[in-house]
Amino acid sequence: MPPPRRFAGVLADRRVPWRTRAELALTEARRRVRPVETYRLHYGGGSLFLSHADYEIDWETLKNTLVDEPYLADYRGTVVLDLGAHKGTFGAYALAHGAAAVVSYEPEAVNVALLARSAAAFTEAGRSWRVVKAAVSAAAGEAELHVMRSSWGHTLHPPEAWAPHETGVERVPVLAMADVLRDALAAEDADARLLVKINTEGEECETVLGTPVESWEAVDELIVETHPWTTCTAEDLADHLASAGLTRVESRHERLLQLRREPPRSGRRSDPT
């Protein structure tokens, strides 16, 4: 169960739509009396889905994204690439705050199933949300995804301390970040600002540093969650991205690296290839 004071705080927070808060209260009661596999919450013109098996983690993710708002940015008219999309809470948040389109990348099968349901709900409501079942790193190929008991704990390169918590391995496709950025320009509105969020459980160093600077020149804003077991620091990432014209700005969480193109780009973006 979510801590009572924190749960009450979410129910009282006006940043969360009243219908979502009411359904959260009903879900908390329902899962105790007559639980079901998934719980639907209406949000932002679409729907989010919480898993009964991972309810505490899914609730924590929802609370973190919608109430704590670590990913605060100007989403109006942006094309958003969501790397490490989990079950779609961030994608829904971006669309609810004005994003023109979201493309979500998530490799883990259980998460993708509910992520796809959220994307479909928003698409039915006339919003643009595409889901790609793949991991993203510096180079394309296939890799082993190490899956942990916690639904947000899966990674291509787990730290040794995670070994006792591993529940399985999935063979997954891996897309190159440079190709992801190029394809976004080809498939989406090239006049829109491009915002990229990366939360890939330790893969951020390979993804950012292994992608040529010229590819990052297509990006207008970047939010990267950093992890303590990686082989680089936030400063290393910021230095690499500075060469692409991205400036580090103050973030709302100590583990988030946020960079923005200043001044904002005007005119049509060029193809990073």
Average pLDDT taken over every residue:
92
> In the CATH scheme, what's the topology name of the largest domain?
Rossmann fold
Query: What is the overall shape?
Result: globular
Q: Give me the oligomer status.
A: single chain
Strand count, sense and closure of the main sheet? 7 strands, mixed
The H-and-E topology, N to C, reads as HHEEHEHEHEEEEEHEHHEHEE
How would you describe the overall organization of this protein?
By secondary structure, this protein is an alpha/beta fold. It folds into two domains: 1-68, no CATH class; 69-261, Rossmann fold (3-Layer(aba) Sandwich). Helices cover 34% and strands 26% of the residues. The chain has helices at 4-12, 18-33, 55-68, 89-96, 109-124, 177-187, 204-209, 213-216, 234-242, and strands spanning 38-43, 46-51, 79-83, 101-105, 128-132, 135-137, 141-148, 154-155, 166-176, 194-198, 221-225, 246-249, 256-261. Strands 5-4-3-10-11-13-12 form a seven-stranded mixed beta sheet. The longest helix is centred in the first third of the chain and has 16 residues, at 18-33. The chain is globular. The termini are far apart.
What keywords describe this structure?
about 270 residues, alpha/beta, Rossmann fold, 2 domains, seven-stranded mixed sheet, four-stranded mixed sheet, 9 helices, about 25% strand, globular
